[in-house]
Design a protein that fits this description.
The chain contains five helices and six strands. The protein is of the alpha+beta class. It has one domain. The radius of gyration is 14 Å and the shape is globular. The protein starts with 5 loop residues before the first strand and ends with a helix.
Length: 133
């Protein structure tokens, strides 16, 4: 995966910095970057693909963060380190077993609008028929 070809759209969750962010690649696929840990050189992020429908289900608290991660459409999850200069390193693909051991939340936490810096902007990425429901 070429992380450099993805554009950050917005932060989904913020607490003293981005905790979960939405990105778009050149093919129109949506990706979520979820903060995992701080390293000596920067931060480790879990990266996975998502869809508008899954994002809407998460924002509307129909599915948990854990489910959002597990339901990644291509069942591909990556851990990547990003330094302050936005250089990517230590990219590794996770199997489902590794994901559950290293990066999956233990509990089912749900979207909290109070932690979203731009909820109106986030709503713009959801299918209109799901917003109206």
């Amino acid at each position: 995966m070429n992380f450099k070809e993805q554009e950050k759209l917005l932060d989904i969750e913020w607490f003293e910095g981005p905790m979960m962010s939405l990105f778009l690649d050149k093919k129109g696929a949506l990706f979520i970057y979820k903060w995992m840990d701080v390293t000596s050189d920067g931060h480790t992020w879990l990266v996975f693909r998502t869809t508008q429908d899954l994002l809407a289900a998460y924002v509307q608290q129909v599915i948990s963060e854990k489910a959002l991660i597990l339901l990644a459409p291509d069942k591909s999850w990556y851990l990547v380190d990003i330094n302050p200069e936005l250089n990517f390193s230590n990219q590794r693909t996770l199997s489902t077993v590794e994901l559950k051991k290293q990066a999956l939340p233990e509990t089912h936490t749900f979207f909290n609008e109070a932690n979203c810096p731009e909820p109106a902007k986030l709503q713009a990425f959801m299918p209109q028929e799901l917003i109206a429901a």
